[in-house]
Amino acid sequence: MAVVTVSGLATVAGLPNYVGTLHLVGAQSAAFMTLLGNLTPEGGRIVNAVEYPAQIQELPSAANDAALEGADAPTLTEWGRTQVTNVVQIWHKSYGVSYSWQAAAQQVSASASPVANVPNPVTDELSWQRMNHIRHFKNSANYILLNSTYSNPSNAASEARRTRGLVSAITTNAVAAGNNPLSDTYINSLLKTMFDNGALQNIDQTFMLMNSFQKQKISAIYGLAPRDRNIGGVNIDTIETDFGRIGVVLERHMPQGTIVVADMSVMGLVFLLITDPDTGAIKGVFFTEPLAKTGSSYREQIYCEFGLDHGPEMNHGKLTGLATS
Question: Which of 33, 27, 24 has the alpha carbon at shortest distance from 249?
């Protein structure tokens, strides 16, 4: 079935009602956002600029340094820092319902199949549309935080800012599979590369994110079916590796040909806190509000500025180009 989308104001003619149990369908996911934290100030970091930085100091490699007996103080040496930045991305939608349609909750379409004493379950159209937009935001934000490509234009009024998602952020620990099937050889290669580059130090907060095809491959590679006459199959949710146990997370919004190993201890959600300049009242980081009254309708907008603080990208790793069939 195709998604039914109504552009513009919801009216009696434009958004018909039906009767019977209302089922919500469609692929939704929030596994990555659940790991990051909830959509509240307590579950993310508040920033006061659209661009936010993170400092990185990389320790020098271990060396067999030795000094001469009785020598003067050696040449002064200091460790420098670098900085990476990301931006918040704007989520902005609006919706509205005419007075007539808000009041006519039980008027159903002529094409509906009425059943005695079975009403339309949506009794408040405006609230229903608000809830739909909130669901849509959560689903889309999860996709964005994983897959968005960074863009920070000089004029965000003509070109939208886009936060850097986790997949594109990873550059140091990247292993290309060349369209070959997933194997423990590729996984071992990625984990070795990560370890050799200083990652996997927070192993208890490290997770492997993948979509459906690679999740089935993981279970096939590492699974050992139980000897039971009534139950068969395996569902691998943790992998024991040479570097510690890594959790396995099924994530619908991961590209089917990519697996990411993510250090959640260095990541978080970032929000821009919106306030009313006239009253000083805090609107929040994610909110709905009425639009100016211009006629016989109820109109609202929903707004959020959010982004991913991915931390040092060398703490994460990715396998790309895996076969998907």
Answer: 33
